[in-house]
């Protein structure tokens, strides 16, 4: 059975989803982040797993469902934090972030028979999921994060290590207001879509600044 890892920040105003402001207020952006995180965690909770771990920057809140171990994120850049998340796993592990509330248990149910890694590309050039049959933190350290080639570099790192890689479907991260509307349309019955619909700015999707590629965060 696979360990499922979710790397996330506590959804506090001014600390999460800052690229949603404007058109949303910092408080609304934090509430949208909380809804996205809750959708993600409930999808993970519904997925068969050996262990479910929230790797958290901050403190857990009422949005955390039962059945999760909570560990603090280590200090350092995103590559180091992702690497340390895998370092705590003794067997197969799949890591995702909190930016894809449209994720489903079906997407997260991976089988490592016949492969060594799973890779989920994000539409902005990053990646939303990374699975390793034998977690090796060195596979992530030094990968440049928040660039247009983050995903390509990470996948090439896996291939260069001789791993047999299978790809998951490409998903869209929620970074901008336009992303929020597009993702809500993909999962209209989720907590994220419901919270977005209650925002005064929700009636006018904005394109906002260009995408900022990154790994899960």
CATH H level, superfamily name: Spore Coat Polysaccharide Biosynthesis Protein SpsA, Chain A
* Estimated helix fraction: 25-40%
- Total strands: the figure is 7
Rg over CA atoms, rounded to whole Å, is 16 Å
Note poorly predicted spans. Answer: 204-213
Structural class assignment? alpha/beta
Strand content: 15-25%
Look at the structure and give the mean pLDDT. 93
Rough outline? globular
C-alpha termini separation: 24 Å
CATH class wording: Alpha Beta
- Estimate nothing, just give the exact number of structural domains: 1
Structure write-up:
The structure is a single chain. The chain contains six helices and seven strands. It is of the alpha/beta class and 217 residues long. The protein has a single domain, classed as Alpha-Beta Complex (Spore Coat Polysaccharide Biosynthesis Protein SpsA, Chain A). The protein has a seven-stranded mixed β-sheet with strand order 3-2-1-4-6-5-7, with helices on both faces. Helix 1 runs antiparallel to helix 6 (191-197) and helix 5 (177-186) packs across helix 6. It starts with a strand and ends in a 20-residue tail after the last helix. The model is unreliable at 204-213 (pLDDT under 50).
Write the layout of secondary structure elements.
Blueprint: E1 3-9, H1 26-45, E2 51-57, E3 69-72, H2 78-87, E4 93-96, H3 105-108, E5 117-121, E6 127-132, H4 150-160, E7 165-167, H5 177-186, H6 191-197
Parallel strand pairs: 1-2, 1-4, 2-3, 5-7
Antiparallel strand pairs: 4-6, 5-6
Task: Give short descriptive properties of this protein.
217 residues, alpha/beta, Spore Coat Polysaccharide Biosynthesis Protein SpsA, Chain A, seven-stranded mixed beta sheet, 6 helices, 29% helix, 17% strand
């Amino acid at each position: 059975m696979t360990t499922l890892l979710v790397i996330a920040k506590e959804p506090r105003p001014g600390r999460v989803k800052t690229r949603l402001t404007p058109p949303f207020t910092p408080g609304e952006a934090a509430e949208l982040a909380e809804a996205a995180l809750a959708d993600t965690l409930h999808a993970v909770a519904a997925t068969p797993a050996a262990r479910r771990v929230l790797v958290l920057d901050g403190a857990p809140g009422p949005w955390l469902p039962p059945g999760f171990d909570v560990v603090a994120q280590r200090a350092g850049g995103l590559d180091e934090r992702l690497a340390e998340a895998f370092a705590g796993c003794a067997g197969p592990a799949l890591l995702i972030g909190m930016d894809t509330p449209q994720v489903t248990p079906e997407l997260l149910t991976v089988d490592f028979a016949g492969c060594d890694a799973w890779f989920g590309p994000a539409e902005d050039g990053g990646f939303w999921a990374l699975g390793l049959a034998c977690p090796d933190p060195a596979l992530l350290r030094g990968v440049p994060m928040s660039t247009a080639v983050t995903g390509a570099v990470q996948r090439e790192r896996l291939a260069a290590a001789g791993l047999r890689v299978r790809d998951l479907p490409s998903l869209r991260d929620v970074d901008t207001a336009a992303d929020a509307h597009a993702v809500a349309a993909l999962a209209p019955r989720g907590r994220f879509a419901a919270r977005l619909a209650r925002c005064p700015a929700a009636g006018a999707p904005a394109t906002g600044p260009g995408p900022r590629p990154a790994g899960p965060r």
